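[SOLVED] Need 3D model of a two-part complex

Original post:
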Amino acid sequence: MTTLFTPDHEWLRIEGDVATIGVTDYAQSQLGDVVFVELPKVGRSLKKSEVAAVVESVKAASDVYAPISGEVLEVNDALSADPALINADAAGKAWFFKIKISDKSELDGLMGEAGYKAHTA
Amino acid sequence: MLAYEPETSLKHTPLHALHMASGGKMVPFAGYDLPVQYAAGVLREHLHTREAAGLFDVSHMGQIALRAKSGKVEDAALALERLVPQDILGVPAGRQRYAQFTNGAGGILDDLMVANFGSHLYLVVNAACKTEDEAHLRANLSDACMIEPLADRALIALQGPKAESVLAKFCADAPAMRFMDAGPRRVDGIDCFVSRSGYTGEDGFEISVPAEHAEALAKALLGSGDVLPIGLGARDSLRLEAGLCLHGHDIDATTTPIEGALEWSIQKSRRHGGARAGGFPGADRILLQLENGAPRRRVGLKPEGRAPVREGAPLFADAASSEQIGAVTSGGFGPSINAPVAMGYLPASHAASGGLVFTELRGQRLPLRVSPMPFVPKPYKR
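Solution:
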C-alpha cells in the first residue's frame, strides 16, 4: 500500500487498481471547522483535475479535485452525516471516495510523504 | 489556501500584540491586521460566546465625539438629525440608539450607534466608512458642532450570558445597566465609556478604553476564566444568526432603511406627522416607502438541507425560472442552530415569511425558506 499526495492537499492510498482519496490534515487545518461535504455519485467517471467533491467550512467553500481519472466505486457516507470527521481524522476515517484507477501513469507526477512535507513546510 | 503574509501597510489596533501572543490567525480587514480566529476555531468561538462569554477587539471601528458649539447636547442632537432619520433629540442622557447616515436617494451611507453622554454625543461608526463619515459630519455639521475623532481609544466588546458577571468584577455599575444604556464608567480603575450593547445577539457590553490601558484591561477580562478571545469569523456568524446587518453587504448606499427592514429604527417624530418629520437626506423616498412599502425587502433565509448558501448567490422564484428576482447578501453556517442561515433581498411580492425561493448552487436548484429574524432568540436585558 502506497500513499501519495497532490499539491492541492489531497492524499491517495493505492491498493492494486483502487485509490482511496481524502484531504490532508494540513488541508483541514487550513479549512477550519467543516460543516458540509458534497461527494461524487457512485459510478461517476471522473477525469483528472475536475471537481470531484466540495467541502464547506464555516469560512468558505473549497473544491476537491479528482487527483487522477477513474470511476467512483464507493463514497464515505459517514462524512455527509458528520462533516466534522474531516477535522477529527482527515488522514483516516474521513476518506472521501474510492476510484478505480483508469491510467496508472497519472500517479507518476504525485508526491510521496517526504515530498508533501516539503511542499507544506 | 495561501499562507498568510503580513502586510506592512495594515494598521494595528492597541490589542495587536495580544492577538499575536494569543495565537490569532491574522487577516487584513478594513485596513487593519485583525484576528479571523484563534486556536479554538470559528465554531467553538461562536458557541462559547453564546454559552459563556467572548471578547472581541473592535478597535478598528470609528469613535467620534460630537459637541455642539453652543455647549448644549440638544443642539448637537438637532444637528445630527439633519443626517439621520432617527430621533436623536429624544435619546435621554445615558442612553444610545441605532441610526443610519442616509444619502439623497435614501440609501445607507453607514450605520452607527449614537449615545447621549449628557454633555455631548458619542458615535461609533463602521471601520470601512469612518474616514468618509468624519468628512460627511464636517461638511454638514461644522456650523453647529465640533467633530472630534477619538483615535487614541480602543473598543472591546464583551458578549455572552456571562459578560455581566465578568464585567461586574471590574465595574460595579455594570449589572445595573440596561440594554442600550451608555456612558462613562470606571472599569478596573480606568475611565472608560461603557454601553450595554453589541453585535452578537447576546447580552453584553462594549467598552471604549484609552489605548494605553487596552491590553491590560483585555488581559484582565480574559483572565476571569469564562472569557475566550473571539475573531472576526465568529463575529460574522454570531451577527448573522442574530439577523444583524453588515454594512457594505446587507445594507449599503443603494438600499434604503425600509428596503433593509430597518423601519423599526425610525421613530414617530421623524415620520410624516411627527414633530420633526423629514429633514434628513432621502427623506422623501424613505418616508414614502414607510407609508406605501418598499419594492424589495431584506429577509431571513433558511436554506433547506445542510449546504451553506453564501453572499452573492442568486435567488429565483421557483425551481425552473431563469429570471433572477434577488440575491443573498450574507450567508453561512449558523453553529448555534446547527444549520445554514442567510439573508438577502427579495421583491415585496416574495418577501413574506414562510415562502419558498430557490438558489442555484453548483448547477443545482436549492430551496430556501423565507424566515423571520433573528434566527436565535435575543436575551437582551431590557
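Edit: The mean pLDDT of chain A is 95.
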